[in-house]
Amino acid sequence: MSAHQKTPIRRILIANRGEIAVRIIDTCQRLGIETILAASEVDLRSRGASLADHTICIGPPNSAQSYLSIDNIIAAAKFADVDAIHPGYGFLSENRKLAEACEAANIIFIGPSPAQLDAVGDKLKARTHAEQAGLPGVPGGKVSNMGEAHQLADQIGYPILIKAVAGGGGRGMKQVHDAAQLAPLIELAMAEAQAAFGDSRIYLERFIAKGRHVEVQVLGDGQNAVHLGTRDCSIQRRYQKLIEEAPAPNLAPSLREEMQNAAVAFAKHLNYRGLGTVEMLVDCDRNAFHFLEMNARIQVEHPVTEAITNLDLVEQQIAVAEGHPLRYRQRDIVFHGHAIECRINAEDWHHDFRPSPGIITKFIQPAGRDIRVDTHMQPGAAVPPYYDSLLAKLIVHGEARATAVAKTASALNRFQIAGVTTNLGMHSLVLRDKEFAQGGVDTGYLPRLLQSQNVAVTSVSGAAKD
Fold first, then answer.
1. Which pLDDT band holds residue 459 (cuts at 50, 70, 90)?
2. d(CA 109, CA 39)
């Protein structure tokens, strides 16, 4: 569809599950759009299935045969005669082949174009585009053999980070502290990347020991682009984010403005269409930032941006997909207060965040002004072992960061979940911690905090992906 050629969307297939499916349904219902949920066999009795107008089974619990099956999703979309597919996050949300299949079937893909997905989905291509747009990158590059790897590692200096070109979620990512570790860890990273993504390619980057994971939300219509502020996602374990906040605290105003402008420049360079996130690593010692990657979809942490902008980002995605020009210029985006999101997961944080599937027997969520809970859980709901362990997201807004921190700590104390083990206690620990209260912690903060509490955890830190 050409830019600004308007095609009304009246029926959407949601090719996802869990809380993001419920979140998309909520906006669609408000807009009067009919929803069809594509669900695996194990999710046919989920909350999302009960809320959607219709549900279509797309395969067995194994995601490779359901949520990752382009053929099954397109077949469901054709059967339901939908106008569009919303891929949510994860699964096929950044998959060029799904976007191409939608085009071939004359179905709107609620996301960027296939070419844009290709440009940012391959991390090496994304680095090249970022450089062309003027964004500074972390020193590093692609290597195709061990000789090149040793040469580049010596050039950029240890410690270094091995990353999978097609990677995400920390898979295929390894820290290397000296030359003796390089070859065995590259072999391990390549094997992990091949198993997880079907692509064993890796590249090397300098490991920034003390860095903050800060991202900028952008929105484009293919011709214009705006930013919706910053988010800090530095509290993470095993490269998975756990607490996010907006705006990113304790950033120098000049650095914040530079990062936001850089993100918009990148989006404009790509003629970007849709919602996207430009992720950056802030070097705390140098007060400088480096481009990491761009996520070409809605993020798990999008509610904190919604809280400080009063915008519905799913609604914005749908409007752009329909062909509408951006409704806002940059000066129209006004920021209010501070927001914090805690990801409540079914995992045992006292035992290296071990997953805890099961049946929810109690689910009492906090309520009150400026408190939001995005969830697909309720008493009797199943937490299957096949998918991500996310149960709910607690989002709290305050006029100032200190207010948001206090209100979040209070809300966590009122959150009650039984039947599975959760990380609620870990979140409470963080919210009470003095270093967190000061704002601007680095990515190594959570492992340090847990170690200080004698909690065993795999100690890795760095830039995360959803």
1. very low
2. 18
pLDDT-derived band at 170 (thresholds 50, 70, 90) equals confident
- CA gap 276, 219 in Å, rounded: 6
**CB-side neighbour CA atoms (13 Å) of 329:** 1
pLDDT value of position 454: 84
Question: Where do the domains of the chain lie, and which CATH numbers do they carry?
Answer: 11-110 (3.40.50.20), 139-206 (3.30.1490.20), 211-452 (3.30.470.20)
pTM: 0.93
Work out the mean pLDDT of the chain and round it to a whole number: 94
pLDDT digits (tens, 9 = 90+) for 410-455: 999 999 999 999 999 999 999 999 999 999 999 999 999 999 998 8
Least confident of 276-290, 307-321, 392-406: 276-290
Cα distance between residue 412 and residue 429, in whole Å = 10
Residues whose CB is less than 8 angstroms from the CB of residue 261 and which lie 6 or more positions away in sequence, other chains included: 227
3-state helix, strand, coil in the chain (%, to 5): 35, 25, 35
Bridge-partner residues for 341, per DSSP?
244, 395
User: Phi, psi at residue 73, to the nearest 5°?
Assistant: -70, -45
> CA nearest 366: which of 298, 428, 312, 306?
428
User: Are 83 and 8 a contacting pair, CB within 8 Å?
Assistant: yes
Decide: helix, strand or coil at residue 455: coil
Q: Strand pairing partners for 164? A: 202
Q: What pLDDT, on the 0 to 100 scale, is given for residue 461?
A: 44
pLDDT at 1 over 60: no
CA distance 353 to 344: 12
Contact 360, 418 (CB under 8 A): yes
Rounded-to-integer distance, Cα 460 and Cα 174, Å: 9
**Is there a contact between 233 and 302 (Cβ–Cβ < 8 Å)?**
no
As annotated, the active-site residues are: 297
Q: Give the torsion sign (CA, 383, 387, 390, 392).
A: negative
* Gap between the Cα atoms of 208 and 355, Å rounded: 29
Coil vs helix vs strand at 44: coil
What string of DSSP letters covers 57-95?
A: E-S-SSGGGTTT-HHHHHHHHHHHT-SEEE--SSTTTT-
Q: What are the pLDDT digits (tens) for 255-288?
A: 999 999 999 999 999 999 999 999 999 999 888 9
- Cα-Cα-Cα-Cα dihedral of 130, 133, 136, 138, to 10°? 10
Closest by Cα among 19, 91, 62 to 391: 19
